[in-house]
Amino acid sequence: MPEVQLTEAGRKELEERLDYLKSVRRAEIAEEIKTARGFGDLSENAEYDAARKAQAEMEGEIAEIEAQLRMVKIIHEITVTCAEIVDGVQQPAKTYTIVGTAEADLKVGRISDESPVGSALIKAQEGQTVQVALPNGKTKLLAVLKVER
């Protein structure tokens, strides 16, 4: 598994999820399996099959989180306020928080440090104009208004 870049908050969130799965959810699923066994013939017991499937999915998630935590590299969250420049006109400002790929969520302005915009802004300084190479071959100009490290 390749390196997983996370902020300290992202690592903590993963650790909390892992703890929940191991300490709470495992016990809940074990109880569901126990209850389902009481319904009789396991070969035709939909509740038992569903509980076993939920158990397998949970164990898979636990293994995935543990693997991610073994390969984690902590990065520092950076917040950048910038404005796109279109035809020489500065557009309304947007604020992006640059985080690791696993934490990215564009709906709330959290972009990956590996995305075109994130990688262009990660080393940007206030007052600088940054040129972003987009996957479609075009470029985007961003005026960096504020950087919080």
Q: Could you state the order of secondary-structure elements as H and E?
A: EHHEEEEHEE
**CA radius of gyration:** 22 Å
> How large is the count of helical segments?
3
Total strands: the figure is 7
Low-pLDDT residue spans: none
Helix and strand content put the structural class at alpha/beta
The CATH topology annotation of the largest domain reads as Helix Hairpins
Main sheet specs: 5 strands, mixed
Estimate what percentage of residues fall within beta strands. 25-35%
Say which CATH homologous superfamily of the largest domain is assigned. Transcription elongation factor, GreA/GreB, N-terminal domain
Q: Let me know the average pLDDT.
A: 93
CATH class of the largest domain: Mainly Alpha
* Overall outline: elongated
Strand order of the largest sheet: 5-4-3-7-6
**What is the total domain count?**
2
Q: Please state the second-level CATH architecture of the largest domain.
A: Orthogonal Bundle
Q: Report the end-to-end length measured between terminal Cα atoms.
A: 29 Å
The percent range for helix content is 40-55%
Q: What would you call the quaternary organization?
A: single chain
Walk me through what this model shows.
Strand 6 (129-133) and strand 7 (139-148) form a beta hairpin. This protein has helices spanning 8-37, 46-70, 116-121; strands spanning 4-6, 72-74, 78-86, 89-99, 110-112, 129-133, 139-148. The two termini are 29 Å apart. The longest helix has 30 residues, at 8-37. The protein has 2 domains: 4-74, Helix Hairpins (Orthogonal Bundle), CATH 1.10.287; 78-148, Transcription elongation factor, GreA/GreB, C-terminal domain (Chitinase A, domain 3, Roll). By secondary structure, it is an alpha/beta fold.
